[in-house]
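ok so for the tutorial part 2 we go from a plain amino acid sequence to predicted structure tokens. step 1 is just haveing the sequence, like this:
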Amino acid sequence: MAEFDKFRGPNVAVDIAVLTLDQGHLVVLVQDRVEAPRGKVLPGRFLRKGETVGDGLRAALMKVGLDIGPIDAGMDGGARASSAAGRPRAHLIGVFDKPGRDQRSTWSMSLAHYLVQPRDRLREVDGEFVPIRPDGSIKPKLLFDHDAIVKKAARELRAQYELTPDPENLSGSDELTLPQLQQIHQWVLGEEVRTDTFRRRMETLLAEVPDPNDPRGTRQKTRPSGDRGGPPTRVWKKISATGGTPRESHRLLQLPRRT
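step 2 — the prediction. this is what the tokens look like for a chain of 259 residues:
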């Protein structure tokens, strides 16, 4: 017996808020518990002996029909940190260990994470996507302390989208127009911001995409501004974050709202 095996530890769970965009809203995946206590919960499970946190998160996601391969898990300062070998990154948002949080165990804690995925990668999952309100709350109420996990996950993701162009690549593209980018940010934030100020904040974090049809390479690429055509709109590319965190004074929700 190892020296510390005689000390009983808590039951350690991993719970994960899977976030995406759906029909113009930031949403989270919830599922129905089939055993007591019954109700809505986030995907999760207790860690087994010898498992890493990443192993547990992957197993929890596979239970709802989502297998995205090995997962990097940890506190990484947001989406700007790179993930090893291109693995999906689950962001640790906190340890939830309030006594009595789970009636199934007298001593338990949850290593709570969030994971962001484009909606088209989540077509086959088992569960329901529930809109997250601007204050981070959802309906219906979840079991255990999962409502608090959702609220904190939404707050952390929205904080990223206040400062950086589409840091979790919910657009699914490296190239996009400013109207497309603004729409994504407003969906994530749950609020609208003024177009002119959004442009001033974001253009400093974007690079022009050269027009491939311009032999001199001096003209910026454009595309129609709407699905059915429209005036040409310039196309931009997100810049890899190498210069540190954008200034707090540039947070989008410190800007005047659109009226």
